[in-house]
């Protein structure tokens, strides 16, 4: 009887381990499924031109999703990234077209590198505001970032009276030309935005895996109280992740404005939803403490390919929203199932050893 019970437990543990492995590989499985599906049903899906275009779309979502991953790992959420995208795009466009008016007939113009640095700084500052609201004023992340979502969008609209900053070619005599390179330029056959994504992704993955701040991010998300008691400066960790999220959103604002050579205050509307979907689909746990940059990048590919593939098939944008919503729900359900199964497998393996 004991032998039979032991055999049954061993079999259950093996089955559970196999199922757990499949759940951990769900992002790869989803990526393979969407690529296979659209390769069959979407015309010219695998053409070189379309693959390059999709990679640029994926890059935009991947930037936001990387910042969102760090935030979610700490147990937070950042709803303001889409509005930061819009505001930072308007900052870049305004600096290129109008410079900064110092009154008394003096206007300061900046070259493209300076414009990009100022824009990135704006994104980081907004992220710092989110961090301060959450750490110093104890505002819930959902409410704090919802508030900054409206504030950032409002400032984006106020900066131009709701109008677009068009034709961001710049003027040679003011050294404001060359902005198009970031969004439309290529290096070694790949868009510049893809190279920027590779650099930021490698840096983020290195930080998450090999640095003290990376270990602290996971510790805070796993158990914030225990992290505080162990000497981790939780507030600094949270400040870092929200500032990084703002930095990533600023990059997206720059890339979109550069690609379109125009800035519009409504840019980035609902981008935060795609970022959350990519992070969760990539294995980031909404309860915090678990996630990887690599998984998030793959999740961004799934969301990007799904969006572009549906457009190529002529699916209504309304149905696209429904499908994305279902993807998010399924990803969260699978994540919760994975957590429960992980606990069960661990218990069965301990019982087997005992």
UniProtKB/TrEMBL annotation:
InterPro entries tied to this protein: ABC_transp_permease (IPR001851)
Keywords: Cell inner membrane, Cell membrane, Membrane, Transmembrane, Transmembrane helix, Transport
Transmembrane segments: 27-46, 58-77, 83-100, 112-133, 187-208, 239-256, 293-311
One Pfam family per UniProt: BPD_transp_2
Molecular functions per Gene Ontology: transmembrane transporter activity
Name used for this protein in its record: ABC transporter permease
GO cellular component annotations of the record: plasma membrane
Membrane topology value: Multi-pass membrane protein
Organism name: Rhizobium meliloti
Places the protein is found: Cell membrane
Primary location recorded for the protein, binned into one broad class: membrane
């Amino acid at each position: 009887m004991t032998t039979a019970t032991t055999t049954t437990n061993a079999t259950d543990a093996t089955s559970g381990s196999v199922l757990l492995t499949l759940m951990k590989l769900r992002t790869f499985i989803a990526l393979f499924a969407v690529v296979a599906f659209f390769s069959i049903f979407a015309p010219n899906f695998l053409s070189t031109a379309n693959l390059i275009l999709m990679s640029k779309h994926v890059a935009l979502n991947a930037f936001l999703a990387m910042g969102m991953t760090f935030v979610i790992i700490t147990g937070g959420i950042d709803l303001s990234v889409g509005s930061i995208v819009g505001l930072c795009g308007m900052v870049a466009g305004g600096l290129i077209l109008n410079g900064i008016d110092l009154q008394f007939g003096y206007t300061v113009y900046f070259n493209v590198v300076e414009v990009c640095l100022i824009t990135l700084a704006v994104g980081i500052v907004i992220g710092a505001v989110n961090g301060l609201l959450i750490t110093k004023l104890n505002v819930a992340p959902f409410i704090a970032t919802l508030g900054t979502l409206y504030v950032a969008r409002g400032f984006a609209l106020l900066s131009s009276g709701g109008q677009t900053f068009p034709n961001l070619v710049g003027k040679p005599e003011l050294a404001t030309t060359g902005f198009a390179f970031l969004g439309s330029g290529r290096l070694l056959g790949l868009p510049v935005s893809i190279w920027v994504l590779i650099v930021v992704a490698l840096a983020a993955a290195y930080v998450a895996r090999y640095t003290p701040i990376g270990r602290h991010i996971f510790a805070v998300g796993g158990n914030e109280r225990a992290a505080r008691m162990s000497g981790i400066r939780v507030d600094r960790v949270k400040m870092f992740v929200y500032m990084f999220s703002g930095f990533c959103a600023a990059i997206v604002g720059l890339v979109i404005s550069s690609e379109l050579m125009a800035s519009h205050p409504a840019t980035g509307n609902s981008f935060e939803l795609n970022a959350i979907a990519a992070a969760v689909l990539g294995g980031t746990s909404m309860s915090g403490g678990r996630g990887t940059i690599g998984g998030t990048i793959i999740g961004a590919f799934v969301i990007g390919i799904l969006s572009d593939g549906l457009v190529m098939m002529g699916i209504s944008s309304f149905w696209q929203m429904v499908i994305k919503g279902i993807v998010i729900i399924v990803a969260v359900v699978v994540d919760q199932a994975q957590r429960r199964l992980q606990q069960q497998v661990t218990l069965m393996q301990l019982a087997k050893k005992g």
